[in-house]
Amino acid sequence: MTTTLADNWGVHEAQFWLRGKQPEKRVEFSEKSGMWNVYGHQEALRILADPATFSSDFLRVVPEGTFPDQDKDALSAGNLIQLDPPMHTKLRKLVSHAFTPKVVADLEPRIAKVTTELLDAVGGAGRLELVEDLAYPLPVIVIAELLGIPASDRALFKGWVDKLLDNDDEFSLKEPTEKQQKRLKDTMEVRQHLIDYITGHADERRSRPREDLLTKLIEAEVDGESLSPVQVANFANLLLVAGHITTTMLLGNTMLCLDAHPGEWEKARADRSTVPSVIEESLRFLSPFAAVARVTNTEADFGGTVIPPDQMIMVWVAAANRDERTFTNPDTFVATRDPNPHLAFGRGVHFCLGAPLARLEGRVALNLLLDRYPALRSDPDARPEFQPSPNMTGVRKLPLLAG
Q1: What's the rounded mean pLDDT across residues 132-160?
Q2: By mean pLDDT, which of 63-77, 119-133, 215-229 is the weakest?
Q3: Percentage of the chain surpassing pLDDT 90?
Q4: CB 317 within 8 A of CB 290
Q5: Residue range 229-237: mean pLDDT, rounded
Q6: Is the pLDDT of residue 4 over 60?
Q7: Which of 52, 126, 140, 200 is deepest in the core (most CB within 10 A)?
Q8: Residue 286 pLDDT greater than 60, yes or no
Q9: What does the record give as its pathway (predicted)?
């Protein structure tokens, strides 16, 4: 399957782990990008668990002017993935109540209802495009309702997010190419559309508060001070975008894994208690977010390979999830793999806040697909289309035959 995925379905050439290859070195410096790459599981785990040494404030080492017409402080304000403790801890607490096990569990009937409605809309045509018909709208509707923004605007979000993700460049800290500069300029323009959209709804909440996350962000205080409009917009933007991309790719990737392993598909249909394990193995096998960035605050020694301070590190969690030192037969999809210490949702203080919700959405949707479509399979005449980014692994189109 890995050869088919990587070579026949257009997975980015940088994702060597999908081609059955182990890295020559677990930690290495890239002259091309000016960054360090970390591919090993134990090395990645160490970095993710130590925010004091490995900071999330990676923008501080990005050269000035890299992001056209953007203040780096404004880009990171309120953005959880770019903040370190204690500010990260304080901001995370503001919304953590919305993702507690009980709150998430209580969402199951709503998730099931939305999934059923979306599948009903497909009708009996005998085919569906999984991303367009289910994997994209389901998590967008759920996170939009939590935030308090119109889920009916999801086509608008999709247009913006698709443009954000439509990037096959490998980012470099070296002298930027004309292509990279244009790409970053386009990205900042699209991002501003999202920020302006959320800011408009936030402004409305200041005069007409509701029982939603956006209102809670506006009313919240950290150290006795309210969040600035920029912090609110960045925070809400992260929740909206990250809150659906992971689940969208999780659902598509899981279906792709099961389609390529029909025996596992039949086992899951016969024994639904295995569905959570299937999802976890999908997350390991095709990790949606392939990499996360960190910056060294101090010198870090990895078995004699020394990374100096103020160096950007790309932690390739997707490669770490194929580390043969941690996972037996890492290039084999084993639906009942146990233990399965994958890093698809990160680890430590930055462990994905929405992981329980993504897992629930995946479980509910997969069970309903199993119920409704006994012969669901890929369309041999319409191959899947993957995200072009080297930092992401997920289908953006997955045509399926339902009859």
Answers
A1: 93
A2: 63-77
A3: 66
A4: yes
A5: 91
A6: no
A7: 140
A8: yes
A9: Antibiotic biosynthesis; vancomycin biosynthesis
User: In this structure, what CATH number is given to the domain that contains residue 115?
Assistant: 1.10.630.10
Per residue in 98-114, pLDDT (tens digit) is 888 899 999 999 999 99
- Close Cβ partners of 36 (under 8 Å, ≥ 6 residues apart): 27, 28, 29, 30, 307, 311, 312, 313, 314
- Both tokens of 376, joined, read 């669901």
Q: Which residues have CB under 8 Å from 313's CB, separation 6+? A: 35, 36, 37, 38, 47, 54, 293, 294, 295, 296, 307
Lowest mean pLDDT among 63-72, 121-130, 281-290, 316-325: 63-72
Cβ–Cβ under 8 Å, residues 166 and 158: no
Q: Which 3-state string (H, E, C) describes 69-114?
A: CCCHHHHHCCCHHHCCCCHHHHHHHHHHHHHCHHHHHHCHHHHHHH
Mean pLDDT computed over 333-338: 94
- End-to-end CA separation in angstroms for the chain: 24
Cα 256 from Cα 251, distance rounded (Å): 9
Written as six digits, the tokens of 194 are: 């999202």
Considering only residues 121 and 123, tell me which one the structure prediction assigns the higher pLDDT. 121
Domain count, the chain: 1
Residues 6+ apart with CB under 8 A from 388: 10, 12, 165, 166, 167, 168
Q: Specify the pLDDT at position 321.
A: 98
Angle between helices 355-372 and 275-285 (to 10 degrees): 120
- Please, what is the Cα angle at 3 between 396 and 12, to 5 degrees? 45
Structure tokens, 303:
């078995």
Contact 27, 38 (CB under 8 A): yes
The span from the CA of 280 to the CA of 338, in Å, is 10
Structural contact between residues 285 and 291, judged by C-beta atoms closer than 8 angstroms? no
What domain range is 195 assigned to? 2-401
